[in-house]
Amino acid sequence: MTEQTLPARTLxxxxxxxxxxxxxxxxxxxxxxxxxxxxxRALRAALDAGTTFIDTADGYGADGHxxxxxxxxxxxxxxxxxxxxxxxxxxxxxGAEPHPFPVGYAFGELAVNADPKHVRGYAEASLRGLGTEYxxxxxxxxxxxxxxxxxxxxxxADLVEAGLVRHLGLSNVTSDQLRAAHAxxxxxxxxxxxxxxxxxxxxxxxxxxxxxVGIVPWSPLGQGFxxxxxxxxxxxxxxxxxxxxxxxxxxxxxxxxxPVRGVAExxxxxxxxxxLAWLLHQYxxxxxxxxxxxxxxxxxxxxxxxxxxxxxxxxxxxEILARTRVEGGTLL
Length: 332
What we know:
Number of strands: 11
Largest sheet: 7 strands, parallel
Number of helices: 12
CATH class: Alpha Beta
Mean pLDDT: 96
């Protein structure tokens, strides 16, 4: 495949392609099993299709698996062509205390440790896994319920000063947390769940606009739901923990999103492309990170960066979404 280019956007002072690639799906245990050969092929397809922005985390896959896979694909000239974002806090060092917090999925809670004393160690482990000398965008994966977020941010700011990290991001935060963190060190981007079936908090978007902070929507396709092809989830699929994919809820949600799929059909684009294009039209500094394991789907999704939606279509979609109730809870 001939390498393509996508329109560019900025996250703070960081320039990236308008659509990134969420690499989480390339590790086993997310959407079922996957081998490394298939995962590497998918990531190469994303780069060939024009994305320059790769999102990973130290907690994706066992023992840093996802970062190592990304590092292998980017080794050599492709590293300089790519912007690599990774996250920390879940891969808790031996002997460190997990700090649990409640979530809306079936397993009930997650645990992180974002104590400043561990942050450099997290970064050094990610640098080794990625096979690189610097991280372009570094996020605490979740605010630590037992550590002030501003303390964690201060530790990342030290990494920026040391040249190990180029830009600071935040993930899964509130508007107040964003404002407080930005006062300690400029925040380039906030990663947050945002899609047609999961609205962003209006106050978070307002503060991001005010401060010039980019938004990186995770699960911009609703964990694959908005592609319009999910009828059930199988064994080994992380979505078994999500109430929205319970058999009864999934059927109800598919029925309720039929009008959205109808708009996509009228426009001659896929449902996934419509969902991504809609997000891109919400804020000029929004960079969604869809993930897929199938090269054809990856190329199709990234083509959404070139789709223009009219004001009339956007207003129609807003009207449909305003009356569409989603069954089942969310992570936060």
